[in-house]
Amino acid sequence: MKATVFKADSRGLADHGWLKSFHTFSFANYYNPERLSFGALRVLNDDTVTQGMGFGTHPHRDMEIISIPLEGDLEHKDSMGTTAVIRQGEIQVMSAGTGVMHSEYNKNADEPVKFLQIWVIPNKMGVKPRYDQQDIAREASPNEFQQILSPDPTDQGVWIHQDAWFNLANFSAGTKRRYTLHKEGNGVFVFVLKGKAKVGETELFERDAVGLESLADFELEALEDAEVLLMEVPMSL
Prior knowledge:
Jelly Rolls; 22 strands; mainly beta; globular; 237 residues
């Protein structure tokens, strides 16, 4: 097994006043040739947007874009005619495909919105753009892996055009669970949202991450109450 640690304080930071965004991988004005992606995982941005502010209408194409709110409400509008608000406990996916325009704003005038925006490189280009949003909180299982994304439209969670599986782990201190990869050649990017966890001999604190390659399974242990996002993606495109 190959493990690459990404410490929280080593991420790129863009502070625009209304937006504070931590970039795990090279994005916009942050460029690190050693952090271009983790296989098909191209972007992992940890964003905080102040009250009433947001991203104006802008284009995307040929990318699977996933948003996971952590606090507050995020309003989404796009050229497909979608107007929606996503909240903590939900997940949003947009297949940009042949091209889509969208905007994202903090819906609230009295509190910031915090969310993860994740881009996964698809295995099919030029698809018809689509939008989906699901409530994942009601499916949560404490101390078990909860699948929130897969390549199968009939499976649990949202789906994307890629052999990728995302899981949330809300573990109480002392909980240990073994994660088995779905596909040979995939890797797993383990990102700690809250608390403290351990993978192998690597201890991870809030917003730390570890990229795991060349493995069939691994054990995740919560050293204290922890919320962890696991992103399994192909390592070769």
